[in-house]
Design a protein that fits this description.
alpha+beta
């Protein structure tokens, strides 16, 4: 479910959920590069309850993060809780409640949710139909919209996906009308998506230019319907924009050919069929979005884009560009060889005894800092060197080939040097995301 829907179900402000994500307490189950939307699973509702329960016991966010990361180590958890007991005697009752409830509350919540489930019926075509509350008679629009909203919430709680507009079942004569929708059951786990996107390019002049994301919808007809759920962007004040470059040129995770938006990012690739329609003086694109639900065995959702202009943008022209023309300042501490140690979302996640990603998933492998700003680096199997491509000065790695200045800092823990360096990938340069970080350790081999 979207962050807004998850916030409503948990009673937590979106700003708090974003803060929990930043602090590593509760990360989204999935982040869609296409739209920037964060998705949470119904199972994570219990995690929010657990975090709030621990906070009620006076625990800091760092302590809560440590407990969640060591959820199977009862001795570790017990140690933290008992330390708090000794420090804050006035919190003894709350801490005891935390210890008693944190292993019981999630199970009770799950049982209570299970007891609330109603029967999902099948129609004559074998399609699954889920029905909501009975509507008042005479039927009015306000009650109908409220019932549709309530039904959508129930569908998400039960790990279903709505794949139709809203229907009505029952008889007016008997004053027994229910709102309903077709649904499919979603898997708990997400699958992989690897489609062949190597289509021969065919031009489509009407799509060239900038498009902004209007919203994501369960089905296309929701866009035109008051009852249809629109999933608002959770990118703060940033408008998510997609560029269709002339000739189908690729940038970040996007490229295109007539009829298809092509996505290739992270560990997945797919072809997303699009349709163009003009509506109320604007041009809209309806894109088949193979995102969170699809990866869990559901159907594609519909991402709606509105055309902003039809300018012929270039790949370089739409990227973030930073000053890489800095004078060289020496830094004796950085000289030598460094090998990749970890990848983190923010600097607060760094811990010398923790690897957030296994070594085989660290694509940035090695860096050599030489005299007078010489820099050689290895990313996957490709080596980059030469001052026209990249160099360094005190505090920064300067990537001249993509106009990014990546700040670094060196910290020493137990006589071991670690370098934490900004990783300004396509997510940062084109996607509007904050920088991630690589952690390197001095390579003395």
């Amino acid at each position: 479910m979207k962050i807004g829907e998850f916030a409503k179900m948990t009673g937590m402000p979106i700003s708090v959920l974003r803060h929990y994500d930043k602090e590593g307490l509760l990360c989204p189950d999935y982040v869609d590069h296409f739209s920037g939307y964060r998705y949470y699973s119904a199972d994570q509702i219990g995690q929010v309850h657990k975090i709030e329960l621990l906070k009620s016991g006076g625990l800091s966010l760092k302590e809560i993060r440590d407990i969640l990361k060591n959820a199977d180590d009862n001795e570790f958890i017990k140690g933290i809780l008992e330390h708090r007991e000794s420090e804050y005697k006035d919190m003894l009752a709350a801490i005891a409640e935390v210890k008693r409830m944190m292993f019981e509350k999630e199970e009770k919540n799950a049982k209570a949710e299970q007891e609330k489930l109603s029967v999902v019926e099948k129609n004559e075509l074998g399609e699954m139909i889920i029905k909501g509350i009975s509507l008042p008679s005479p039927l009015n629009q306000e009650a109908f919209l409220a019932a549709c909203c309530s039904l959508d919430e129930e569908i998400q709680k039960r790990n279903f996906q709505r794949i139709s507009g809203f229907l009505t079942y029952g008889s007016m004569d008997k004053n027994d009308i229910q709102v309903a929708a077709k649904v499919v059951k979603l898997r708990d786990e997400m699958g992989e998506l690897h489609e062949d996107i190597n289509l021969v390019f065919e031009d489509d002049e009407q799509v060239i230019g900038k498009w902004k994301v209007v919203g994501e919808y369960a089905v296309k007809e929701d866009f035109y319907s008051e009852a249809g759920e629109r999933r608002e962007s959770d990118m703060g004040n940033k408008d998510r924009e997609i560029y269709f470059l002339p000739g189908g040129e690729d940038y970040w995770i996007y490229s295109w050919t007539k009829g298809y938006l092509k996505l290739a990012g992270g560990d997945q690739s797919c072809l997303c069929r699009y349709q163009i329609e003009d509506y109320q003086g604007s041009r809209y694109m309806f894109v088949e979005n193979k995102s969170y639900e699809y990866l869990r065995g559901g159907m594609p959702t519909v991402l709606v884009l509105e055309q902003v202009d039809n300018k012929r943008y270039t790949r370089r022209g739409i990227a973030r560009q930073e000053n890489t023309d800095m004078p060289f300042v020496n830094d004796e501490r950085v000289l030598g060889d460094w090998k990749a140690f970890d990848f983190i979302r923010n600097k607060e996640e760094f811990a010398p005894d923790v690897n957030h990603l296994p070594q085989e998933r660290l694509f940035f492998k090695h860096m050599h800092f030489g005299e007078e700003g010489f820099l050689s680096s290895v990313y996957m199997d490709e080596t980059t060197s030469g001052k026209e491509l990249q160099s360094w000065t005190k505090g920064y790695v300067l990537k001249h080939h993509n106009d990014t200045a990546c700040a670094y800092e060196i910290v020493t823990v137990d006589d071991t040097d670690y370098m934490i360096i900004e990783w300004k990938s396509g997510d940062y340069r084109w996607g509007g995301y904050d920088t991630d970080y690589y952690v390197f350790i001095r390579d003395n081999v």
